[in-house]
Specification:
By secondary structure, the chain is mainly β. It folds into 2 domains: 10-284, no CATH class; 297-383, Immunoglobulin-like (Sandwich), CATH 2.60.40. It contains no helices and 34 strands. It has strands at 10-13, 16-18, 22-25, 28-31, 36-39, 42-45, 55-60, 64-67, 73-81, 85-87, 91-101, 104-105, 115-118, 122-124, 132-133, 136-139, 141-146, 149-150, 153-154, 157-165, 168-173, 197-199, 204-209, 213-219, 235-241, 246-249, 253-257, 262-265, 274-282, 297-299, 321-326, 332-337, 362-370, 375-383. The strands form 7 sheets. Strands 5, 7, 9, 11, 13, 14, 16, 21 and 23 form a 9-stranded mixed β-sheet that branches. Strands 2-3-6-8-10-12-15 form a 7-stranded mixed β-sheet, with no helix packed on it. The two termini are 40 Å apart.
């Protein structure tokens, strides 16, 4: 942890006050040449702080916040904040942004507040715990990879446009498109342009841009690609068309990886024509079960050795599989790649009440995809109250 940064050729014009909790700029701050300034407290920027050279760093063992009525613009910047840097007004970057420690958090319900990469600016050090949790944007760039993600997962989106983007922005959402948290409309995954198209209910990206572009998305083990594709060749990038109000196929090129991890690139499209984007597949590639008989199940996880766990008979015929369990509102409460008959009534999905907590009594439904058999099945699970720990 850095404890102090050297102040070189830093000019204050106007009024800038320092308190125990924040630096409040009312006037003009400008960093010249190779100046380096380190902030260890919140910044409230209500003045000019946009004609900078040198480096601005944010360092704290706690949380830092940047707010105010005026947007700061930095030449070089870096973040080393243990409990994340919260951004409440847009920050511009003209050269390099260095992720060292902690996420940059922007409001998901206000996409115009973001970390904006201007011109040829770039970044370093992105990762699962060093990313933009919220919105990133670009101004005047032809190609860019948005270092976005959520909840300890880096889920980048790469864009290559036919001409330079005057402006584009992106965020990632680990949630069901049918019940989005910050959009005024829902995106019915059953509303598709062809009956064979299936849509992920686990995640999506919001991308805005006016230029015709190709994008590259990735999937990982929490994307559960095997739920909507039997092989990588069945995967597609799909988008919710704003005018048609349905999901359409945006193509698939340069597919790499397997159903647990990989990347896929779309054909060209105009991002602004689509509200959100995700990964889908060919549902016709997944047939009905024949080698394994599945039914509805009843669980009483009370420790008496009877129906304490969800045992799917014949699972040994497809050790490569994925299981998802949903409550009656369609919220996923449990997910496991290569399920091994171990579900005992505990939720393991963040946001499903609380992770590692016992689920309440009720009716749930499950979806299991058997990759080795090229099949999937949906059924019901009746669960009594989980035993008290």
């Amino acid at each position: 942890m850095k404890t102090f940064r050297l102040f070189i050729l830093l000019m204050f014009t106007g009024i800038c006050t320092f308190s125990q909790d924040a630096v409040h700029n009312y006037g003009n701050i400008q960093i010249h040449n190779t100046g380096e300034v380190g902030f260890h407290m919140d910044i409230i920027n209500d003045g000019a702080f946009n004609q900078n050279e040198g480096l601005v760093g944010f360092y704290s063992e706690d949380t830092l916040t940047i707010s105010g009525s005026s947007n700061p613009v930095f030449h070089d910047a870096e973040v080393e904040v243990d409990n994340n840097l919260f951004v409440e007004n847009t920050i511009g970057i003209r050269n390099n942004f260095n992720f060292i420690l902690g996420d940059v958090i922007t409001p998901r319900d206000e996409s115009n507040i973001n970390l904006n990469f201007i011109g040829d600016s770039f970044y370093n050090g992105e990762g699962s715990d060093t990313k933009i949790d919220g919105y990133a944007s670009i101004t005047g760039q032809l190609e860019f990879t948005f270092p976005v993600g959520q909840d300890g997962r880096l889920r980048p989106l790469s864009i290559t446009s036919s001409t330079i983007n005057p402006y584009a922005k992106c965020a990632y959402f680990y949630e069901d498109p049918n019940t989005p948290s910050t959009f005024s409309e829902s995106f019915d995954t059953s509303a598709v342009e062809t009956d064979s198209l299936s849509i992920s209910t686990n995640e999506f990206w919001h991308l805005e841009g006016s230029e015709s572009s190709r994008i590259t998305l990735s999937w990982d083990d929490l994307s559960f690609a095997s739920l909507f594709a039997a092989s990588t060749t069945d995967l597609r990038i799909v988008g919710w068309n704003n005018s048609q109000k349905q999901w359409v196929d945006l193509g698939s090129t340069n597919i790499d990886g397997d159903l647990n991890n990989g990347t896929i690139t779309s054909e060209e499209f105009i991002p602004n024509d689509y509200a959100i984007i995700t990964i889908g597949g060919n549902s016709d590639a997944l047939g009905t079960l024949s080698l394994v008989e599945l039914d509805n199940y009843y669980m009483t996880p009370n420790g008496d050795g009877i129906n304490d766990v969800l045992v799917i008979e014949g699972l040994e015929n497809s050790p490569n599989n994925s299981l998802q369990i949903f409550n009656r509102y369609g919220i996923m409460v449990y997910a496991k790649q290569n399920y091994d008959n171990s579900f005992d009534g505990l939720a393991n999905v963040k946001g499903a009440f609380s992770r590692n907590s016992g689920l309440s009594s009720g009716i749930y439904y499950y979806v299991i995809t058997l990759d080795d058999l090229n099949e999937k099945h949906q059924g019901y699970l009746y669960l009594t109250t989980y035993k008290k720990q």
